[in-house]
Amino acid sequence: MRPDTPASHTTEAERLLRTAAQYPGDREPLYLQAAAHRELAGDRPGATALYDELLASSPADPHLIRALKAANLWEYGHEAEARAIIDGLRRAKPSDAAAWETAAETLEAHDELEAAESTLTEAAELLVTSAELPHATQSLLTTRHRVRRMLALPHDDWDTFADQLHTGAVPLDELHDPKRLWSLGSSDPAELQAEITRLRSELGTYRTALSRPFPVAVLHWPEPELDELLAAYPELEAEYPTYRAHLTDIEASLRELAQAGTPNLGIVRATVPSYEAFAASESTRPSNADLLPQYATTLAARGRATTWPPAQAATCWCGREATYGECHGGSVAT
């Protein structure tokens, strides 16, 4: 049942923290969910404590965690600290669109529209490098469009791009019209019906985003993790004869799937503790090779997949200090 009272949110946060202790490989997303439930329960200092715990443990996405912490701090009177975090994030120039958008929405929520717009513009200058954008960057452009609409600014190229990316029946200019709020208090049935149509369009857009199929994901064991895996479970050596062969198999498998027309391909980073926890949850041994594809699918379903292929100029998925085009993205995988 979905929690909808402070007590039930607190209970859900405690459950998530217990789960994180049981499955340390999933600690970061579980802690973020627990922090959100603490915020909904009104325990904002408790949420900050969780963000601080994550930041002290070398998280995978520190910029997003800092942005969420800033949003939370501002809500319970720590505006100066929240502003300092947002300023630091802007100086850091993260490659994570979600961190930028969270920071900008925090500014917007506190009537700092000009600062929100400049933050989103900085992010767009950094992240919009091609016509094919990940969903998070598309969302950032949509948020920027809304903020600029609130400021009555004329359309620029990125606003036009946001319009082109929008797939809803109602155009963004209508969805982001500041006067829409007035229609909610109208007694005119025609105005109310028009607002219902707009809201349905927005809901349809969100549902489309949320219902995107999980990527078909392939496991990538970084070399230290693979060494640890095979030392503990030598039965898996048939799956992974060498690290070099493992990397070659990943690229070859993904190319074969792409040629067959399989959409939404991705790579998930595997770790031994996370894999062992997953095996325990499935009541089987980690040495069972049949478990590997299930583990990959589960990680992908939890949002842990990185889209494949990366851009040619992006860092290669294997972790080497080389671009994808120079490494595994070449005409022949290395």
Give a summary of the structure in a few sentences.
With 334 residues, the chain is mainly α. It has helices at residues 6-22, 27-40, 44-55, 62-75, 79-92, 97-109, 113-127, 135-150, 157-165, 172-175, 180-183, 189-210, 223-232, 243-259, 272-281, 291-301, and strands at residues 216-220, 265-269, 305-307.
> Total domains, how many?
2
Order of helices and strands: HHHHHHHHHHHHEHHEHHE
Given the C-alpha coordinates, what overall shape results? globular
CATH architecture title of the largest domain: Alpha Horseshoe
Count of DSSP helices?
Answer: 16
Radius of gyration: 22 Å
CATH class of the largest domain: Mainly Alpha
**Average pLDDT rating:** 86
Uncertain stretches: none
Number of strands: 3
Could you describe the largest sheet, including whether it forms a barrel?
Answer: 3 strands, mixed
Q: Tell me the β content.
A: under 5%
